[in-house]
Amino acid sequence: MVISSLSTREFVHKYKKSIVIEFQEERHVLSTSPFNGGFRKDLAAVFNHDANPGAGMACSMKAATYREHMEIITRELGLDPEKTAGISTAASMENVSIKTVTFEDLTVTAIVTGGVEVNGGRVGDTAHYHERKGQFEKVTFGTINIILHIDADLPKGTMERTLVTCTEAKTAALQELMAGSNYSRGLATGSGTDGTIIICNPKSDLHLTMAGKHSKLGELIGKAVIPAVKEALFLQSGLCPEMQHSVLRRLKRFGVSEDKLWETYCGLNKESSISKPTFLHRIHSIERENNLVVLTSMVAHLIDQYDWDLLSFEEIASEIIFIFERISKSKGVDFEMNELAEHRKDQVVDDIINIFIKILALIGGTTENV
């Protein structure tokens, strides 16, 4: 079925768990696809494919190699494998977001699917595979896939700069959502398997040579990609500002979870007087409170700035102790705050988080807080 039309009079189709664009005339394409990827002038179509076989089922390839797998998908879509570039994901095509912005005779359309709950990560995180003689370890799927259609004639170098600006826009969207990495305590900059396809129109009378943030094209890329990424993530997993307004969500990247809080509570109370369901109910009854979310956010960002060497240990320690004392007092829990000791950076952060976990566990075990 046709789900959208482009300014070049081409259509965005959705069928067989895929988003497909067939070109009506010559298009220039720059893509990250291992299948007919790179810069191409000879393609007739591009697609984004949902490789997820169903809930609870692992993604699997239909052939021994990724190229052969994608060739099979291409043929199943009724497209020519020699003239098609494709990217894949585990995100549903039902959750696609399409955003179009224009300025005078320039039109930019972003077509995005995405998910970062499973494998969202921060550039520089510890790797999960290494290529050796063409062989890879299995990777986890999640993926933000972007097809960016630009109705203008762009030189090859400008298309490459467009890819940079598009990537920056994706990362900006994740920053604005405070999406955490699943592999470190940093904020996510993307997923480990993101793919991008840039399409431009060499037949256009509009010839542009700049795609950076100072150019109008760069601005439109940001205005199309940022909201499209946000909407796609919301449609796929519910990720949005309301979801992130949560103590548990803000602390997830630091290893704080319901089970960790319960385990800590049991350790502090050898003969627990409440059940786990009751304890978790109490945690959920307070973890979205405005004041608690604000104070939690302050602790998280102080840790970020310590990790980035923007603040010293002495600067964050005194403020975090003050915040913890404020939280404890406001919730009526008796918690003796000891001075934080300066150790290696990871140990300092572990100490801070462990103290916070104890405070939250005590709050969860206090009936007066419900």
How are the secondary structure elements laid out?
Elements: E1 2-5, E2 11-15, E3 18-22, E4 28-31, E5 38-40, E6 45-50, H1 66-76, E7 84-89, E8 97-103, E9 106-114, E10 120-121, E11 144-150, H2 156-176, E12 190-191, E13 195-200, H3 216-237, H4 241-244, H5 247-251, H6 258-268, H7 276-286, H8 290-307, H9 313-331, H10 345-364
Parallel strand pairs: 6-7, 11-13
Antiparallel strand pairs: 1-2, 2-3, 3-6, 4-5, 4-13, 8-9, 9-11, 10-12
Helix pairs in contact: 2-3, 6-10, 7-10, 8-9, 9-10
Counting DSSP E segments of at least 2 residues, the number of strands comes to 13
Classify the secondary structure makeup into a structural class: alpha+beta
As residue ranges, the low-confidence spans are 137-141
- Secondary-structure element order, N to C: EEEEEEHEEEEEHEEHHHHHHHH
Query: Residue-averaged pLDDT, rounded?
Result: 90
Q: Percent helix among the residues?
A: 25-40%
Number of distinct helices? 10
Distance separating the two termini: 50 Å
Strand content: 15-25%
Largest sheet: 6 strands, mixed
Q: In order across it, which strands form the biggest sheet?
A: 5-4-13-11-9-8
Radius of gyration: 24 Å
Shape: elongated
Can you tell me about this structure?
This protein is α+β, with helices and mostly antiparallel strands and 370 residues long. Helix content is 38%, strand content 18%. The protein is built from 10 helices and 13 strands. The strands form 3 sheets. A 6-stranded mixed sheet has the order 5-4-13-11-9-8. Strand 2 and strand 3 (18-22) form a beta hairpin. Residues 137-141 have low confidence and may be disordered.
